[in-house]
Design goal:
Length: 565
């Protein structure tokens, strides 16, 4: 059996070489970021997303906007096919495709000074019709991802109720720091964050044996059937979505930025503890190198759908188009926040791979969990694999199982709420783009955004009673389509500025080919299963992807051959 330390060190070396050499090649030969680098929020600052001029705050906020829970869930699911396939996909996909996409969009957004988001980029680079198509895609993608965030938050709070009080304290500290921020110096705000982190970790130790639960359920019944059930899971979904809506409506420094900063701190503590525990305990990978669970689809192309989010970086790139932190002045931040963000999400996925392959006493125990594809359908079971596996590894550091479980649960909860806020901001930015071009009235932006939050909660509540495996390929299709759209924007921008195209063209071709292959197979399965709603959404995603590729192809066809190198 393979030792987990060798897997960990191999991946970290690849990540280091990718950042040191490949990202530098992209910066020097392809993107060439200018000296006045800033995110779109710097040019479109408003009362909700003001500009932050400090790199420290930008870095800490950006960590909280990662779609880490989605990456963890997708990777933990994909481990069912054995560890080799998902390991190669996360490593290669993140270093090449996700790194290029995230770094490129981080470079592209400031270059298009008239654009306040991805829709503006599409408008400037192609046409208003393309912009509307791209904006609709990104709004739908954000709703799908936010549904997973809300669903995960509800599941964790039900399964790990001891994390409820620390989560409330996390919100209280974020609110306090946000209220004090306008009156304090940068150094004072920097000092407040570790103090708050220490208090949260202490509270986690004090209250990790004090669960807070909802009990019972509320039913709304009609004369014919039960119309609505508000059970504990649904109640937490509604509360999490409502809190994220409130955060997204406030000025960023008032609540969202401190919350994201504290969430990043918890993520850093969790990852450091995990990797130190791996180096000390050095568990072996009990999972087979390749595996075919009973009832599972083939690993290719379904791996691209199940683990698409972290390996293609569409969410990180979207956060860079105006929904994320405000400003970072040095050009090196293009690499650090763009390519580095993709590597950070790959490191999170790497941790999930090691947990999913070592958190079992033997291969037989692993096969008992992963032997059947249908047995992986419950999201709470997938989250429990990760949280319990982390607690088992952390026990090598003499940390109690209960405390380590609560820490992992709290970290995921903080990232879920931060992801919900980021998703709502992505939607708001897209709606503002549509309003700016007269597609909808500006007065309707807030109401439509509220409808998006309600749709998120309803979709999450519906999926809490369903098999997550029926929903996850749809999310993967949306992620691949969004990544293809972003890479298409990059290609058009590079062609417009007479830059080399190959570094972006090859990841786009691969993402498009993998996406078409997986989406067509998914359409066949949905058709035979008579799942018409999901079939319609998947077909729309496939048509959007085809339309964007056709537009990019018509533009590239007119270029001289030397420009493609």
């Amino acid at each position: 059996m393979i030792n987990s330390v060798s897997v960990l060190l191999t991946a970290l070396v690849v990540f280091a070489f990718g950042y040191r050499f490949f990202s530098k090649f992209l910066a020097i030969r392809v993107f060439r970021p200018g000296g006045n680098y800033s995110t779109p929020a710097a040019a479109t600052a408003d009362s909700v997303t003001p500009v932050t001029a400090h790199g420290y705050a930008t870095l800490m906020q950006y960590g909280g906007s990662l779609a880490a829970p989605v990456t963890i869930i997708g990777v933990t699911l994909a481990v069912a096919w054995g560890w080799v396939a998902v390991f190669l996909w996360v490593i290669v996909g993140s270093v090449v495709a996700a790194g290029t996409c995230c770094m490129g969009i981080r470079w592209l957004a400031p270059e298009q000074h008239t654009a306040s988001g991805a829709g503006g980029l599409a408008r400037d680079l192609r046409s208003n019709g393309t912009a509307t198509l791209v904006l609709g895609l990104f709004i739908g993608f954000a709703v799908l991802v936010n549904a997973v965030m809300a669903l995960s938050a509800g599941g964790i709070l039900v399964a790990y109720p001891a994390s409820t009080i620390p989560l409330l304290l996390l919100g209280v500290f974020a609110f306090a720091i946000g209220r004090l921020a306008p009156r304090q110096s940068v150094s004072a705000r920097r000092a407040a964050n570790p103090v708050a982190m220490g208090a949260i970790l202490l509270a986690l130790w004090v209250f990790h044996a004090t669960p807070v639960r909802f009990t019972g359920e509320i039913q709304l019944q009609s004369a014919f059937d039960r119309a609505l059930t508000l059970d504990p899971h649904t109640a937490w979904i509604v509360l999490a979505t409502g809190f994220a809506w409130y955060c997204a409506r406030q000025p960023s420094p008032a609540l969202a930025a401190p919350f994201e900063t504290l969430g990043t701190g918890l993520l850093a503590v969790t990852m450091v503890l995990l990797f130190v525990a791996i180096l000390i305990a050095h568990p072996v990978l009990v999972a087979p190198t390749f595996h075919a669970p009973s009832g599972a689809p083939p690993v290719l192309p379904w791996l691209f759908l199940i683990a698409a989010s972290g390996a293609l970086g569409a969410w990180n790139a979207l956060a860079a188009t105006g929904a994320g932190p405000g400003k970072a002045e040095p050009p090196d931040w293009t690499r650090l926040l763009g390519y580095g963000g993709a590597i950070a999400e790959a490191v999170i996925g790497l941790g999930a791979i090691i947990i999913g392959t070592t958190a079992f006493s033997s291969r037989q125990t692993w096969l008992h969990t992963y032997g059947s594809w249908s047995g992986l359908g419950r999201l709470d079971g997938i989250l429990r694999i990760y949280i319990s596996g982390f607690a088992g590894l952390a026990h090598a550091l003499h940390i109690s199982i209960g405390y380590a479980s609560s820490l992992a649960a709290l970290t995921l909860l903080g990232l879920c709420v931060s992801g919900l806020v980021t998703g709502l901001r992505i939607q708001r930015r897209a709606l503002e783009e549509l309003a700016g071009r007269g597609v909808l009235p500006r007065s309707a932006v807030t109401r439509i955004l509220a409808c998006g939050a309600v749709a998120t909660a309803l979709l999450a509540a519906q999926e809490s009673r369903a098999d997550i495996l029926a929903y996850w390929p749809l999310l993967g299709s949306a992620s691949i389509t969004a990544a293809v759209a972003l890479l298409t924007l990059l290609l058009l921008a590079l062609a417009q500025q007479h830059r080399p195209l190959a570094a972006v063209l090859w990841p786009q071709i691969f993402a498009a080919a993998a996406g078409f292959w997986a989406q067509i197979m998914e359409l066949v399965q949905l058709w035979t299963g008579h799942q018409w709603a999901s079939f319609s959404v998947s077909l729309a995603l496939l048509l959007i992807q085809g339309s964007l590729l056709a537009q990019a192809g018509s533009t590239l066809y007119r270029l001289p051959p030397r420009r493609l190198s």
